[in-house]
Sequence to fold (91 residues):
Amino acid sequence: MQFQADRISDFLANFSENKYKIRSVQGCLFLDLYQDKKEKNIFFTYSGWESEKDLDHYRNSELFDKVWSETKTMFTEKPQAWSLDRIESLP
Fold:
């Protein structure tokens, strides 16, 4: 997600306000937030879900609507999202 430079603090406040609510959604295994080292207005969220059904339940929730409706007003570029299948993980 690429944000307007003057809206980064707004995004971080919104994320901070909602991160534990998102993490507590049934089926959410983890929730991470990353910031690009060079382009400080680029962020990535990375989350793991027990099942696609759990992720879809979150995407169709009032919580997602609230968080996303506020977040999308801060973008400078269209956001991208991917759903991935884990092939291998090393401890």
About this structure: The longest strand covers residues 28-35. Residues 64 and 79 are 15 Å apart (CA to CA).
